[in-house]
Every structure is written in structure tokens, then in C-alpha cells.
Specification:
alpha/beta; 7-stranded mixed β-sheet; 4-stranded parallel β-sheet; 13 helices; 13 strands
Length: 406
């Protein structure tokens, strides 16, 4: 591979996104590339000409191993919406001038749906101006909603955290004999993959959550209360897992019903949250029972102390595969294809970014129970292999050691 390489991280971080960065870094070194640059804060930072040479930041094998275990985005992230080149060609002209200045031949972007849209636009513009720069997407999202891939790096570790935390909450709650309702809010705007992973807590030593609500199924408050009271006929505590993005039959987010004005992010997405707290207050008032809401929030995406070894390994593979693929490809994303569950076998390949960008993969309807309050065994069989294995952090003075940029 000739020329220099640049890599960026975008969107919400995960506990394994830096393993993908390591995959790109080491893959580029093995391929004999020139300089390997890292964008500071993604495309937004690159447009401000903020970047680093990764060889100056990742100096030895110990740095590599610590970085794999470091959560969040080592290079910094952004939520920058790249306009279409037909509407604002000046941004593209500036960006490609910067890439030319750095002699960039291969561009890698680690991110989710919006990041893949960026890769799509950049690859199309490069083709339009006959640029020889290649553009490759490396998948990342705890939401697991990227299309055409069996699963997405970041999801397995987040699912492991959710299932583990649910077990601990259930054990804590079941200590008491008093009536109680616990509602746990898990990330997921339109796809309930992460909330569904709460079902993995149902093991030989744990009953798991009693009810699970996903955004793929319309949410009814009256039915919600009825479902809880049915659970309460058989046990003192009711544990519920639900997605932050659950919506009523009219398509309105439940958390939206309590707010006069929903803020939007740069992509026009409504900023969700506090669904569990809102419902907990309502249920407590309507049932007269003790009710509390728990919001995992960023904890579920940054808990590198309980990372899935399989997830961190596959995140690395995604980065390394992207480098290997760009020798003859552009405008693609690395995807995973599953061959079997027992034994678990997957392989990587690339897929045209045009089929992936701006498409959300949701939990199949057949994997949600008919009453809409749980997930099927098919989902369990799909998700459980993704949380297997552990990778212990390097501990210093009782705390995990991480790699950061000064």
C-alpha cells in the first residue's frame, strides 16, 4: 500500500472502539504504509487541521495492549453532519486539500450509521473528481443497528455490561420482601438490541428481568401497568428493562410526552432520556407501590472493566480487515457473517456502503414474544456468543490503567 493513512473515530464511543483503531494502526504498519495519522475529534477536527501521527502516541507493545483496554475514543470523537457535496462543495474542497497536503491515500472512519453516511458521501465525491483516495468504514455501535452485518463491534461488551448489571440489580432487589417496582432504562432509539440483551441475565442463578419492552413494539402505559400487576401476583418485586426509545401507537416517544420541547442533535435526532424516571413516578403514583427508575446512560458504553474478549478481538479484526481490503476497494464497510452458533464461527468481508448508510437494522419481530414483553430463545442464541470471554484491565494502585493523548 502506497501513501499515507488517516483514521478517525466518530459518534458515541464504545469500550472496544480503540481496539479497532489498533487494528487499523497495526494493519497499516504491516502493509508498509507511510505515515499513519489520527484525526483529533473525527472529521470535524480534520477540517480544523487537527491530527496526530499515531507512531508518536502508540510507542510500544504495552501501549497497544493498554489501548485495547481503554474505553471511549482515544482520538476524540464528534457528531459532525457532512453536507452533501452538491449543497456545499466548499467543505469537500477544503477536506480534500488537507488530505492532499498530508499525501493521504487511504481514509478510515470508525463509527456507526451517521459515520457510514460520511464514508458514502466522501467516496462518491472522490469518484466525481477522480481522486485515488480510498474510503473505508469500520463498524462501531453499541446499538447493533448497522445493516448487512450480523453484529457490530461494541455491542457484545455493552450487552455483557447490561446483563451483568441486571443480575446485580435483581439480587439487590430480591433481598427485600417489601413490594417494589424497578424500571431500568437502556440505550436504544429505534432498535432494541441492547435492551433485549437484559434477557441474558436469565441464568441458572438468576431469574432475569420480568418484563422487557423494545421500541420495535408500540408501548401502552395501561398495558404496562397491567403487565406489572400480573407479575406482582407471583412475587414481591418486579424488574423491568426498557429502551429509552419506546414509543406509543402514534409513534411518539414516551419520554417526549413529559416534555414541552425535545432538543435535537446535529443529525436531527431527538435527544432521548429519563424514560424510566418518568414511568417510575407514574407507576408509583398509580399503584401505591415503591417504584424507582435506573438509567444506565453512558455506563453501558464505557465499562471496559467488563469487556467481552470476543468483542474486543472482533473489533480489532474489523480494523485490520479494513486495511487489507482497501488495496482494491473503496466506499465499503467491513461486515461480519456468521456461519454457526455452536461452535461460534464468523468471517469478515466488505460490503458496499450505499446499502448500509442511513439504514437501521431492528430486532426481528419473530424474536419478540407475541405479548411484546420479552424476547425469544432465538435472540438468546444469537446474542450469548457475543458476550463470551473476558480481558482483564492492567491495574495500577487498584484502578485500571488507560492510554490517553496529552
Amino acid at each position: 500500500m502506497n501513501g499515507n493513512v488517516i483514521v478517525g473515530q466518530s459518534g458515541g464511543p464504545t469500550s472496544v472502539i480503540n481496539s479497532s483503531l489498533v487494528g487499523v494502526f497495526q494493519g497499516a504498519k504491516r502493509a508498509g504504509c507511510g505515515k499513519i495519522y489520527g484525526m483529533r475529534n473525527g472529521l470535524e477536527g480534520l477540517l480544523q487541521e487537527r491530527y496526530v501521527e499515531l507512531n508518536d502516541c502508540i510507542k510500544n507493545d504495552l501501549d497497544i495492549e493498554i489501548l485495547k483496554r481503554t474505553p471511549s475514543s482515544f482520538l476524540g470523537t464528534c457528531r459532525y453532519k457532512l453536507p452533501h457535496y452538491e449543497k456545499d462543495s466548499a467543505v469537500y474542497e477544503k477536506l480534500f486539500a488537507i488530505l492532499k497536503k498530508l499525501d493521504i491515500k487511504h481514509f478510515f472512519y470508525i463509527g456507526g450509521n451517521d459515520s457510514m453516511d460520511t464514508i458514502k458521501k466522501l467516496a462518491e465525491y472522490a469518484s466525481k473528481i477522480n481522486s485515488d483516495i480510498t474510503f473505508m468504514g469500520v463498524p462501531k455501535t453499541i446499538d447493533n443497528d448497522l445493516d448487512k452485518t450480523d453484529h457490530t463491534p461494541g455491542y457484545g461488551s455493552a450487552a455483557k455490561y447490561v446483563a451483568s448489571a441486571m443480575k446485580e440489580i435483581i439480587l439487590d432487589t430480591d433481598t427485600y420482601t417489601t413490594d417494589s417496582i424497578t424500571i431500568v432504562e437502556i440505550m436504544g432509539r429505534n432498535a432494541g438490541w441492547l435492551t433485549a440483551s437484559a434477557a441474558l441475565a436469565r441464568t441458572e442463578d438468576c431469574t432475569g428481568p420480568d418484563l422487557i419492552y423494545l421500541p420495535e413494539t408500540p408501548f401502552s402505559y395501561d398495558k404496562f401497568v397491567s403487565d406489572i400487576l400480573e407479575v406482582k401476583k407471583h412475587k414481591s418485586s418486579a424488574i423491568i428493562a426498557l429502551s429509552e426509545g419506546i414509543r406509543n401507537a402514534d409513534g411518539q416517544y414516551i419520554c417526549e410526552t413529559q416534555k414541552d420541547d425535545m432538543k435535537l442533535d446535529v443529525f436531527g435526532h431527538k435527544m432521548l432520556g429519563e424514560t424510566a424516571l418518568f414511568l417510575s413516578d407514574m407507576v408509583g403514583k398509580d399503584t401505591g407501590m415503591k417504584s424507582r427508575g435506573i438509567v444506565f446512560s453512558t455506563l453501558q458504553r464505557c465499562a471496559s472493566h467488563i469487556v467481552s474478549r470476543r468483542d474486543i478481538t472482533e473489533a480489532y479484526d474489523a480494523g485490520a480487515t479494513a486495511v487489507a481490503a482497501v488495496a482494491g476497494e473503496t466506499g465499503k464497510m467491513v461486515i461480519f457473517k456468521r456461519i454457526s452458533n455452536e461452535p461460534y464461527k464468523v468471517f469478515t468481508e466488505t460490503h458496499d456502503i450505499g446499502d448500509i448508510a442511513n439504514v437501521e437494522k431492528t430486532v426481528p419481530k419473530e424474536w419478540i414474544t407475541q405479548n411484546g414483553t420479552y424476547v425469544s430463545q432465538e435472540f438468546i442464541d444469537y446474542a450469548r456468543p457475543l458476550i463470551i470471554g473476558e480481558l482483564t484491565p492492567f491495574m495500577v494502585d487498584g484502578l485500571p490503567r488507560h492510554l490517553t493523548i496529552d
